[in-house]
Task: structure prediction
Amino acid sequence: MSAPAPIPAHATTAWDKVAVVALGSAACALSYDALQQMAASIHIRGALTYLFPLIIDGFIAYGVRGLLVLRTAPFTARLYAWTLFGTASAVSIWANALHAVRLNQQGPPGTGLRLEDVTVGVLSTVA
Result:
């Protein structure tokens, strides 16, 4: 009886793809909710608040696509894709943290578990 052939280190399975899509979708939903509330806070009209998270998360998604497509392109093209991805990611992380910290500061005392602002800010960026 022969041993099964080893799976190459770079091979992915259907379960890997499902897990990435599921985790990405859950993270997007959490981020979307916080960014939509931020849009209302910066006085974007109610009917248009859905666009704010779509723009930020859309730039992140397109930045990732750009990084994949341009992985063998000249340095300046890759730098542009990294800048797009990095800037959009930084804005998303900052806005999610700010949203969580401000809500934490406004919450009434004695309503259950109370975390410090730094903890709330860091946890809000996980997604």
Q: What stands out?
A: The first helix runs from residue 14 to 41. The CA atoms of residues 11 and 92 lie 31 Å apart.
